[in-house]
Write a structure and sequence with these properties.
Helix content: 25-40%
CATH architecture: 2-Layer Sandwich
Keywords: ATP-binding, Kinase, Nucleotide-binding, Serine/threonine-protein kinase, Transferase
Order of helices and strands: EHHEEHEE
Number of domains: 1
Protein name: ATP-binding protein
CATH superfamily: Histidine kinase-like ATPase, C-terminal domain
Strand content: 25-35%
Mean pLDDT: 90
Organism: Streptomyces finlayi
GO molecular function, one term: protein serine/threonine kinase activity
InterPro entries: Anti-sigma-factor_SerPK (IPR050267), HATPase_C_sf (IPR036890), HATPase_dom (IPR003594)
CATH topology: Heat Shock Protein 90
Largest sheet: 5 strands, antiparallel
Oligomer: single chain
Low-confidence stretches: none
Distance between the termini: 27 Å
Radius of gyration: 14 Å
Amino acid sequence: MLLSPTRRGARLARLLAVAHLDLWGLPSESAAHIVAELTTNASVHGRVSGRDFRLRLTVREDSRLRIEVTDARGDRLPVATAPDPHAEGGRGLLIVEALADRWGVIPGPVPRKTVWAELDLAP
């Protein structure tokens, strides 16, 4: 799905992800939080005027849900670091790290990057 790099686009991404996961019969609570954090980051830190971000959900053969968010700011790679304790933001990737079984970043193709997270699905 291509979505506008706005807070509204991030909210719509979360709603659409939950709807798709429910349709597929998959649990959506952790995935919804991960989608919310990654798409908010794409709309705030990965925003380039006139360029959308992409959300992709896939269920892999090895029983993993993969969430990918691609934005147009490949020059700004995310890092999960502890923010100032008094800061209002900066905890999104720490949430992703806590909820996901794995996560990472794939640079390119220029000027893009993809931040991904995987959840192991219970049999």
